[in-house]
Amino acid sequence: MAIGERIHFFRTMRGMTQKYLGMLLGFPEKSADVRLAQYETGARTPKADLTVSLANALAVSPQALDVPDIDTYTGLMHTLFTLEDRYGLTVDELDGEVCLRVNVRQGKDAARLHEMLCSWRQAAAMFKSGEISQEDYDRWRYRYPEFDTSQRTAKTISQELSNDLLEQLKQ
Questions:
Q1: I want to staple 150 with a disulfide (CB 3.0 to 4.6 A). Which of 96, 105, 119, 164 is the partner?
Q2: Can you tell me the distance from the alpha carbon of 36 to that of 149, in angstroms, rounded to the nearest whole number?
């Protein structure tokens, strides 16, 4: 998804108009909506400092706005191939389902990806069990790694870490 689509996604999720967000960023009221429309349609690409300002205004991580090309199946596949090369991601089958796995023995990058995926799995499990709300889960995802406190270990997430994550998400 291109950065413009991500801006649009988060802006509408937050219930903001283009004019309101543009004015938050400091654009003149007269042209704030036009400027935002240019970024959302891809006619303009925000520079790094504006991307940070957009992320702050939308209460997300700057990285949540700048994602790889996954708009096409081919782009998505090449993103997965890059993850295979860089982080040891492999395609496998488990119980008749295609799944992705990380070989943690492939090196520190693979081990780090494994830790991050375990953290995601933990947050998703908390959402699924009702321990945290959709809003809390979205906050965890879209501001990652800000609310991720489970990075101390990749093998098991202790109850203490789970409680810490739940407490931070509630704040």
A1: 119
A2: 34
